[in-house]
Structures are given as C-alpha cells and as structure tokens.
Amino acid sequence: MATKKRLAVIGYGGMGGYHARTAMRSDVVDAAGIFDIDPEKQAKAVKDGLHSYESLEALLGDPTVEIVTVATPNDHHKELAIAALNAGKNVICEKPVAMNSAELEEIIAVAKQNGKLFTVHQNRRWDTDKITVADLVASGSIGQVVSIESRVHGSRGIPGDWRKVKAEGGGMVLDWGVHLIDQAIMIFKDVKITSVYARLDYITGEEVDDGCHIVMTFENGTVYTVEVGTSNFINLPRFYVRGSQGSAIIREWNAPLEIVIRKNAIEKDAVPIRAQSGLTKTMAPRDGDTTITYEIAMPTSDVHDFYRNFCRAIDGLEEQIVTHEEMRRVMKVMETAFRSAESGQVIHEII
User: Fold this and answer.
1) What would the pLDDT profile of 162-181 be if each residue is shown by its tens digit?
2) What is the secondary structure of 158-182 as a DSSP string?
3) How far apart are the C-alpha atoms of 37 and 54, rounded to whole Å?
4) What is the rounded CA–CA span in Å between residue 22 and residue 50?
C-alpha cells in the first residue's frame, strides 16, 4: 500500500471537522492537524485528538503536509487556497469553490504556476439518489427525458452563522444550489446548457436568498429544475423525472427510485372518471394492463473515493475527478442564475 499523504485542514467548523475526522480514519491520508482563528475551535480540535497548529504560517510551513483542505467561510477561499498553493501544497476547497468566476481563474492560474493540483469538494456527486437518476437517464428505460426536478426542502431557515451574510458568501444558491447544479451537469455531462431562469426567495430575511428555483434548459431539450427551500413544512419529492415513455420519483432521502413505464404503444381508449364536479377522460388513471411498475433500491456509494482519486491524481495515476472546467460551468450557472433573478428574465447563454 502506498504511503498515506499528510493532510491539514484550515477551519474547524462543521465541514472542517468533517474533513479532519474523515482524514483520521482514511486509507489514503493522515490527519496532520488543523488551524482555526477561533481559540475555542483550536482547543476543541486538541480535545478531539488532533494537532492544532499555532498559526496559519505554521500549518503552511509544515514540510510533511502535501494536501491542504480549505473549510472556511466562502469569502476566504481564494486567499487561503492561493496561500496554500504558493506554499507548495495541493489544495481541496470546500464548495462553492470561490465567490465568482474571476476568483476561480486566479486560483487555477496559481495552481498551474506552482505545478500543484487544485479541486473543490463536490461530495454530493456520491449521493445515491443522484447516481440512481443518472443511471436511469443513461438507460433510456423511460424514453426521452423531458424534465427532471431536483429538490431539497427544509423548514429551519438558514443556519444562524455566516451563511446569512452576503459579504461572506451566504445564501442558499451558494450553499445547496451549488450541489444540485453540479449534479445536473454530471447527469448530462457532455450536454451544454442553453438557458437559465431563476427566482430567489427572501422569506426570512433580505440580505441573502434563503431559497432558490433555477430552471436550466439543456441542448438535448431536457428542462432541469433545481429547487432549494428552507421554509417548506411539507417537502416535495427529492427527484421527479418525466420521460416520453414513463416517469420516476424518489420521494425522500434514501427512498427507492419508483418507476412507472407504459406497457404498450397502442392502447384502448380510457374510460372517463368523475373528478370533483365533472368528468375527465384525459386524467383517468392507468392500471396494470397498460403500465409496468417497479422499484430500484439505492446503490452503495463511498464519498471517500473523492480523496482516493485526489491522492492518485497527485501521484499522476489518474485525472482528478472534479475538473477545473466543471468548476467553471457550475460557477457560470450560479452567476447566470443571479443575473436572471435580478432581471426577471430568461438568460440565453451556452454554458
């Protein structure tokens, strides 16, 4: 087995702690330690069994550290990623990778200058619901995919920290929208987006969006909707997929994929039903004679494959799985969504 690579984490909040704990039980990296500007978090790291660097300079100056993970508020990603790259470290940045495309390009340029790898932690590529939907689309079992709706709903508003502050990169587009957009781009990896339309929610405050509704139209005709809500007391399905020959739904986290497909191309005429105050033939339900219904259970998935890939990429054994071009596309979609929400217009651009 290859020697594990030493990894240090900048920031010891929720995600910083996640990365540090992951490194402590990893088969490819060792946890070198953490640094946080908050003394209480520094002390907590020591209590958790981690080394706490006395300063950022001490962390970056440790010659045994090969990888630095940046897990700070979003507005510090660029400066810390560049500092780590200039210190000769390979860098993993929490999402969103930067505050805007210009910052991203600065980081990429510094990574190339130093001959180091730079990537973003798009961990929800390993969500099993996304993997299952991607497999469904690729299989063609429900025909041409007309639309996909991808939603995450909650009712607790934005967490009471920097995520409520615009200058620090707060808001749900940058917090959850970034994940759902990345998933969409991965499901249709080689298909361009031709238009974006967005509406943002400001239900619990006015400084940052606490929800978003973003509609992307892909070049193949699929309309892909991503929706994030933090004031939803009844959740809509996690995924709903509509095809020319059937439909599929994932109702909630970890639920199976339910599929209904049309059995025959030629069918007898529907019998009208009474619906509320009238009759309808168009909306008459189907039965087992005309449809096939089945379920697909969630597959297994290991998000730590992200770190395994990054370590192998450092050794030149494979390409990094989250590429610079994919980072650019996600950032461009988010920026276009903000422009659409501000103007109230559909933005027609190739992304």
Assistant:
1) 999 999 999 999 999 999 99
2) S-SSGGG-GGGT-SHIIIIIHHHHH
3) 9
4) 12
